[in-house]
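Encode chain A's predicted structure.
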Amino acid sequence: MLSSSELKNWPIFTILEPQFISKVCMVIVHDYSGNKALLVTNDNMVYAIGTNTNGCLGTGDTCDTFNPIIVKELCKKDIKTFSFGKDHVLALTYQGMVYSWGQNDYGQLGNGCYQRSLIPTIVTNPVRNEHITDIACGSYHSLALTNEGKVYSWGGSGNRINVPIKVEIQSGLIDEYIVSVTCGMEFNMIVTDMGKIYGWGENSEGQLGIDHYSSQKNPCKVAALDGIVIEKVVCGCVHTLALSTTGVLYAWGGNNSGQLGFGNQGDRFARPVKIEKHEMGRVLDVAASYCNDISVAMGEKNVVFVWGRCLEQRIRVPTYTPLKHLHDAFAFYSSRCVTHQPLIVYGEPTEASLIDCLWNAFNDPTTSDLIIKVQGKPIYVHKAILKIRCRYLRRKFDEDWDKQNQSVIEIEEFSYNVYAGFLQYLYTSEINLLVEDVAELFHIADTYSEDELKGLCMFRLEEGIAIGNVISLYNNAVEYKAKEIQEYCLNFAAKRITVMLLTPGFAELDGRIFKIFVTKAVENGAFNE
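Encoded structure for chain A:
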């Protein structure tokens, strides 16, 4: 999430009036040169600016504009997200409707023809009783994910399919439930709720991660990552990055610009390899863009690292930057200045400056007046902020710490990473921790009576839970007596118990835990005919 003042980092927005910028809540910068953009304002209106090749601004003509023009067909439609290809764009609404416009030589608009469209038109929903929850685009093709975990594709330089077609996954007896989709230039990757990865499409650089370089028409499992629960996959032009739920980052595919981060350049890899970079620690997030050879990651201390083609240089290992957001790396370093996903914007410039100051103040030894040591490691904080943001800590100061005039406080009962994440939440109202850390953070929130944080923990759990990690998350919840998380894990597993019974290792569970999971499934009617 960026402040409205930070949009100036993207050259195309520098010409806009501050009054207009202050109303923007979401933007996307597209086209290989970064000279096209779509903007959504707080009043649910959609605007376009920039060059208008093939009508991909959606304004009904091919005229360039550097004054915001309304995209009528998208206004008041509750836009959830955008995705873009070489010269085509998709928009997804919160109601699950997909609109497409722009170039259509390969059927990438999914509207049943091959003529370009100058205005957004609805992509026909291929199935009844389902709606689209996510979209993705490569150069000349498009993907859509439904609320039933199914994927549909259309377009493609080799296939020229002009209507959505269901993607079939051959995985034995188990019906795979897809939770995320992403596209490279001419290939695709998907993640299942069990944390498995499948890929298909162009594979000349090994970007599918399947141990050879032959292209695939149907999804193939990345078998080298069996036993590792993957939370997120992103694609560059010809390379792929995968982040596990434990914060380990893997890379494979093309490496002509050092974008795999292995310290070399030019050697392609057809199977996943772990990126070893001690300074990053546990990786919290990762980003790439199908039209770039740059890789970006957020390390455990919320530090952004970049590698690959950066400012026309080839950076071969993850390299520290002073940036605060993954988005900034694409604005400042990428050769093609486009957003890897829509930017969510908040606040007026005055509000944003205060929030920025709080972000920068956390763990800053030059301004702090208190050190909190956890597991012997210091965290630099400010008494006033802790008192204002947390009633529990204010009471501790009033009753104990202030009277003792302590400049260093020792905290023994929590881990360093999670307690630092809690303190950062007090500064930013955001949590940047792995899903494995949620139970302990929930425990801190419960101990300190932070109900809002407990809600954020549950939201983070919903994002990161999968069949492959539900048991470990449940065990963590038991350890930290987080009953709400225990219950959520049990309900999640109960709804998928037939799949879990086929999962390696489930039958070898501790007998008590096995009984708890199966009993919950029976209560939910999982085995009823």
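The chain has a mean pLDDT of 89.
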